[in-house]
Predict the structure.
Amino acid sequence: MRFSYLVAHLPEIREVDINPLLATPTEVIALDARVLIDRVPTPSPARPHAHLAICPYPEQYTETVSLIDGTQLHIRAIKPEDEPAWKDLLRRSSSESLWKRFRYLFKEATHEMASRFCFIDYDRELALCVEVIQDNQPLLIAVARLVSDPDHDAADYGILVADAFQHRGLGRLLTQKCIDIGRRWGLKQIAGETTTDNLDMIRIFRSLGFQVEFRHEHQAVLARLSLRS
């Protein structure tokens, strides 16, 4: 793990050779090692860890915040092992909330569907999970998601908040955080889509500067926010 941090944080490392590596039941010893470093200074990448083939877990998005009513929230990026909690969130959400988020109805989320939402490429996709402690156990109550195109020009935005935690400021909080992340990514635009009767989300979009377009023939609302002047 320490070696992976070394490679992740120092993009000027071109090559590392450890040979031999002695491993015993109690310790690991590098008997000889060789490291090749770029002589030309490496420019700072536009995004952290852009030099890696697989982006590591984004710990920088982990934080604890409070709602206006004092509820403590733990926010972090989603992990593959969150699949059971993500499915449970969907089970605790009403069909109306699921329709507004996904635009289609389903009886139960399958493993294949959950994989698309929990096993993600952190380089171009981010899902912020929100947990509260209930009965001494973390409970997933919301997920906000950004999915960018390969060029990091634009991203789609979506959010699902458990019914019991709606109308408490959580939707606006997560939307603002995703906007801030989009700016750090260097995105030009964020776009979200919801239903015409999702008045709460439409108000959030408008209050944060999104341009809202009603498409009544599809019973949909498209919201776009430009991140560049």
